[in-house]
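User: Round two. Same drill as before: sequence, then structure, for each protein.

Assistant: Same drill it is. First protein:
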Amino acid sequence: MSKQHNNILFELIQSMSQVEKAYFIKFYKEQGFTKKVNYLELFKIIDSQKIYDESALKTTLHLSFKTADFPKYKHYLYKLIIKSLLACHSKVSAKSIIRDELKGLELLYYKGLYNHCFAFLKRAKKLALQYHINTYLIEIYRWEETLMMRNLNVKKDIVLLANNYKQQKQAIRNLDNLLEFFNYRNKQQFLDRKYSEKINSKAYLLEIEKFYQHELVQDKSKATNLKTKIIQVELTASYMNISNKSEAAYQARERALKLFDNQQKIQYLEDQWYYITLYNFLLSEIDTNRYTDAFITLQKLKTLKSSNPFLQYAIFFDTYNAELMLCIKTGDIQRGLKLVAQNQKRTKKLSKEQNFLYHILLNQFYIAQLYWISEDYTNGIEAINRFTQYPAKQYVPELHNNINLMSMFFHLELNNLFYLEYRTESLKKIFQRTKTNSPLHEAVFTFFRDYLKRTNEKDKQRNDKMFNILKNSIIALQEQNIRSEIDSNILFWIEAKLNKSTIQDEIIKHHSKKP
């Protein structure tokens, strides 16, 4: 048995939220299992393991578990957990409710209780039409047709059958249109991953330009329903962002938001369409320095409620990180630090959620920036250390590189020069080996090498010269549209050094100049 296959039960249990684990324990107890094999004991021991260790597991378990039958026990527990998860999430989305209604319908149909089926069909159809879930609509129309054929009212049902056929064809056309746009959007996402470490390269920009010229993006008539219209607008906004046309991206996302009427905002929340559209609009408001408007949009996002726990987690992390970003952009560091203190317990509780590792990493990145601006470098390094303990850093190279660059400035401020010298050379080698080196990295490495060569720490003229060289290098890169999440903060740090002020003062000064 392969190591990967051997670990699948451990991986499943580790991926479960606290709510799901509590539900499984309740679910297990309700099944009324005999005490001959205690699967709950097996579940709890695996859950307590940090790294999967089968030999330790067998040693710890009760004698009722026969070693020879151990693979069977694990397989049965795996299936039991899947059943529990399905039950736990059976009512969290329109799709899951429709799925349950169709299961009930099928059961009753094969029992010959055709009259009972119509109530299930009616509820499923209403939801599928309300949320434009064409995959289920096609199945619903087929069931409708099947039930009509069981009915003896030929004169009435022949008209309904003709109408049903038209509805099926329309649902298939809508689904085909949606699949076409989904496929094209996925191509863009794969393109982004392909160039994730060379996001500013000419090759990437040329491919994106070619991608944007496609008829699915340019021809408005190609999008025939609300969902495809939103994808079309978002593809346009994404291109505008990559091309550093933030205002055009903002206008595109504003158009996307106007596609929803009040009823659709509620309807499309559960499958995340409205939420994602509103969140992307918030990011565009921040990109275009509409900070006052962004705080208003942020409050709208915070008030969204969903029965889907994963969507609620996403809303929490996205709004939390967006508010931290706004605090950094506006220099309102006290508000940001207060927010960190308020959300500390909840963030810690959700830090084990595998689906939100990127959100957690981004959260620690913003917290580290807050400490940098408040000049609390010790706590800043602690935030960086929390970031680097997560294995997911390999999936976000740009974020990982930025946090490493930030740590160098922290160690400079703490006068850890020996460590700084070692870190400068080791990071340069890592970036070169992983091919994630950028002009910004080179400019920062050059600065630190020059800084470490100083013979007289009081040589202010030489210090100012080094700061200005780094400042001019970053400004030149920004003019070439080569940007980073931390380049602005580095500039504010330099200005604070040159003006003998604080980073926070420089951000507030810069923010006050914005129109």
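Second protein:
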Amino acid sequence: MHIAGRCLVTAIVAAATVAGCASSTSPSPSPTTVPSTLPSTPGLPTPTMAAAVPSATAIAAPTAATDAGPLGWVDIGAVKASGIDFLLPLDDGYFGWEAYGAKDYPTGWFSSDGESWTHSLLAKEITPCPGWKARPDGEVTDGATNGKAVVLVGLEYAPEATTCGDWQATAWVTSDGASWQRAPGFAAENGGNSWAHDVWATPTGWEAAITGPSGITIWQSADGLAWTQVAQVAKPESSIGAHASGPDGTRLLVIGDDQTETSRLLASTNGRDWLDADRLPMSPREIAHIQAPEEGSRRWIVVTSDEGGDRSAVWTSTDLKDWDGGPFPMPSVEGIKDTTYGLLAFGADPCHDTGGPCETDPSEYFLSPDGKAWAPLDAAVAAVTFVEGRAGVVGIGAFDPKAEGGAKRVWRLEPYSAAEAVLFSGMRPDARFACAARRTGLPAHALAGVECSPHVAGVDRIGAYLFGQQDEMVDAYLQRLADNGVKPRSGSCPKRAGETSYVPEQAALSPYRYGCFLNEFGNANYRFTVPDDRVYVGVLGTDESWKRLHDWAWRGNQDTPGSPTVWRAPVP
């Protein structure tokens, strides 16, 4: 994702792993505004004040999203990277990069299908000044693609600098994700550091925003290797915020003034002449992210956030004149993409209090057809950065401590199968949170499985499993209890470990059963069957309380003798 400045720890349903975000050595962009007077540079245009935004080429109305039913992240492999900072879709696959890979060296990663990945080191060892430790000779700060090629930008040590160790901008170019060319350093200035902060593709090549002692400048390149300065857009002590470049050549760029803490949104159709954008329903200071229409997409997307980071909104437009949108369900939009399934957004509740414990709502995915009405995806938080490419919506998830040498899990967003959709839809609404299809390690003879991690006190996870035959379901249920020392008809659950029928039974063993036990970690397990639908359900607790799990599983039951309510067959 390219929504920077936030870092969150994300729990993964099926593994005790966490996701982080790498810090940047470059100053973080703050949403602030540039004064009207800029230092002039001979021969270079500066932004014009109080002018209307150039109209973007009108785009057809958004194509209706595909209604694929319930969706979930499916584990498709791993990439042996400590942290993929961003993902980009290429015509031939997917590209991601680590700003700080092995031994803090920038590393590029490419995959044609999201499953198998190869990597390339993007820097070599250098000792820039006498007495310094050896380090990489370059750092990556941003990247962009036009589908055919990728250009990364960043900084390197300037060999001709007056002061040893000063930076200058540089760039890396690839057309296959494996072989790279590095641009000669550019934008060096005496008396301070310069670096390429952002880059975007244009109809004629590439543009980069450079931060340096003289302010913020725009540079252009036809091939990503030879760069020329074409404009200055901000004075010193300014910062770069959100940006995007559309397929028709419309560029949007937020520039901040660090002294006055104000912001401007600039627009350009050629990269040389920049105008103040008007007719916007939001303040430039609130803009956290801008996304231009991509292949298969039809709309500009702007994410706004209030100053305290407690509220976010999503806005869409097809012409940059008429905007539509509304509030987002969570305080922060950590990532958003226009996909086959609609607008897919990753929401979070960041902790703003660093002085002590902080209680926040769990992260969630949401889908929307229009950016106004958002529905929770109810999918397990697996991929924290994602894009849609040739093999579907692929994302990079949490660090996997069990993988040899460490790795990030790779996930693909897929519709549930018909059987999985039934299991998912049968979950009671309060149980249907952070769900994922279980496709490996299923109980014997199970045809499908779905597991969820409800945000309910005392409940860690609930799983529902579908069988082809009723007797196979009962056998799997009884075997799980037998493996934990519980015999049929031993009774007393939830007072103690035991098993019984929840309907009156005769001599023959009834298929309507429930039981409980403590697992090897001392956590309560509660199990029951739904024989009419050949479904077996297991609930894992966070402590030893069987009663809490029993009460939750039966909540709202008003029948006698009744049955658990946490899973019941969905009504067509």
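The longest strand covers residues 71-79.

User: Perfect.
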